[in-house]
Amino acid sequence: MKIGMLAPISWRVPPRHYGPWERVVSILTEGLVARGFDVTLFATADSITRAKLIGVCPKPYSEDLTLDVKVWECLHISEVFERADEFDLIHNHFDFLPLSYSKLVKTPVITTIHGFSSEKILPVYKKYNGHVYYVSISNSDRCPELDYVATVYHGIPVDEFTFRETGGDYLLFFGRIHHDKGVFEAIEVARRSGLRLIIAGIVQDKEYFEAKVKPFIDGKRIEYIGSVGFRERDEILGKAKALLHIINFNEPFGLSLIEAMACGTPVIARGRGSIPEIVVDRETGFIVETIDEAVRAVEEVDKLDRRKIRQHVEKNFSAERMLDGYIKVYKEVVKKHGSCGESRSKTLG
After folding, report:
1. What are the beta bridge partners of residue 200?
2. At what angle do helices 230-238 and 255-262 cross, to 10 degrees?
3. Kind and range of the H or E element at 136?
4. What is the maximum span of the chain, computed from C-alpha positions, in angstroms?
5. Which residues contact 147 (CB under 8 A, 6 or more apart)?
6. Are 114 and 95 in contact (CB under 8 A)?
7. Which residues lie across from 173 on neighbouring strands?
8. Does 105 have pLDDT greater than 90?
9. pLDDT (tens digit, 9 = 90+) per residue, 27-39?
10. Burial category of 266 from C-beta neighbours within 10 Å (exposed 0-12, middle 13-18, buried 19 and up)
11. Which of 113, 212, 324, 332 is most buried, by CB atoms within 10 Å?
């Protein structure tokens, strides 16, 4: 099967540090190649892959601010659709904009919806509903006005994360610095628990960072270490006492949660969005609603079996499980697409 994989170009594939969508695209692409699929990855030119790489955009626009975002998005997306006849299907991870190209080609388009940035983008998804095949990343993140072919949870190469029998003496916030992600709430939980907090992630909202986060950073009790790469991520996640995810929005998935649990690190999270689909309350962490509940959960985390936490990820959120889910979708879509898809899919894996 020949697949055109359309990645975002905000970050490299795989990302150097931050870039959850690009991270998922990399895991999926490399896994498909390993299973014998013919994949062409459309990503930034500095991306690293065993697939065929077509990089129209020279660098990630979040790393090179001289690039005009709209110009390079336009050139990047048009490239895959101008070559659509080369593929049995196009797998879009670029949000809503590529949908507007989908009726101009005969090749079926699968779109993984990595979350809705706002309700303002829904008209695009509604217009192409029934023409493009939508995949959700959690059941909670489904829009009732759209039709979906499947939910495929994100998966990670679990072996890339070191299991640790015991955690350390600090709490961890790992994610973008934004009100949605509950950085201030994590600081409050740490202060009331009397434990050190390490904050890792990009500053997405500078005003929020200056007002709600920076005043508490002292380098000792509250430490901000910026966005970390994957080697550092394994250590910082694995040595934490717990990952705090006291969010203020409906989380579409939460990649850092399964990465932490792969290390055996429990998660304390507010139960919004996909959290109940990822965290098993009182087994792999604690689902809470208030700061008081989170503080009490911190007192209980050492009672959890870190081995079982790791096994939960191995069973439900491995890269292999994600691959199985998408391959099933690919086969169903090509079959539904009819004889045109079948004629191009003699090498179907």
Report:
1. 174, 226
2. 70
3. strand 133-136
4. 64
5. 129, 130, 134
6. yes
7. 199
8. yes
9. 999 999 999 999 9
10. buried
11. 113
- Per-residue pLDDT for 323 more than 50? yes
**CB of 232 closer than 8 Å to CB of 172:** no
The size of the chain, in residues, is 349
Which domains does the chain show, CATH number per domain?
Answer: 2-155+318-343 (3.40.50.2000), 158-315 (3.40.50.2000)
Kindly report the number of other CB atoms within 10 A of residue 335's CB atom. 12
Torsion of CA 326, 327, 328, 334, to 10 degrees: 110
**Is the whole model's pTM more than 0.70, yes or no?**
yes
Torsion sign over Cα 273, 115, 154, 327 = positive
Query: Rounded CA gap, 337 and 348, in Å?
Result: 14
CA 310/CA 175 separation, integer angstroms? 20
First to last CA, the chain: 6
**How buried is 169 (Cβ within 10 angstroms: 0-12 exposed, 13-18 middle, 19+ buried)?**
exposed
